[in-house]
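Entry for the shared binder. Reason: the reviewer on the internal report wants the predicted structure included alongside the sequence.
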Amino acid sequence: MSFSQNDGIKVATQPVKRKLTVPSKNRNWFVLYTAPRAEKKAKLELEYRGYEVFLPMTKSLRIWKNRQKKLIDSVLFPSYIFVKTDERYLAEICRINKIATYIHCGGKPCKVSPECIEAIKCMLSMDQEISVGNDFIEGESVRIVEGPLAGYNGVLVQQKSKTKFGIHLKEINQVASIEICTSALEKF
């Protein structure tokens, strides 16, 4: 942000938004680590600069000390945000305020498959409670055969006598799971 003087008044001017001209075949989904509780600001800044961004959010009921109940938007994966871009832009993205780094393994950036991103978007559109945890228990690999998530592969997880279908994001060691009927599943 720069300042210009106009009749003795300082006026803030924003940098010009640039358009990305990266062919879609070279773009992949990458995971970025943000400053604590700065996911929404980082998303806005990335979108302002022309990047395709995915920040999974859910509505959750919070009860305050005065017994007041309120529905608030909460981030599904705290301190993580997904961006679809070419790998060569990651260093530039990490210089953006509120972005700490990108997730990498062995010096190479971790890519998230588009199928995982689409599965999470589909889970969010179902308006059901989504639980997230890193206490991943190896389960049986299953495929959903009916319903809005039909065709997605994942892991069957049993939690408190409920059957849940989970999408494991290895890059951030988290599982997004949703309650599902076992009749909609098949082993593969």
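Summary line for the report: The radius of gyration is 20 Å.
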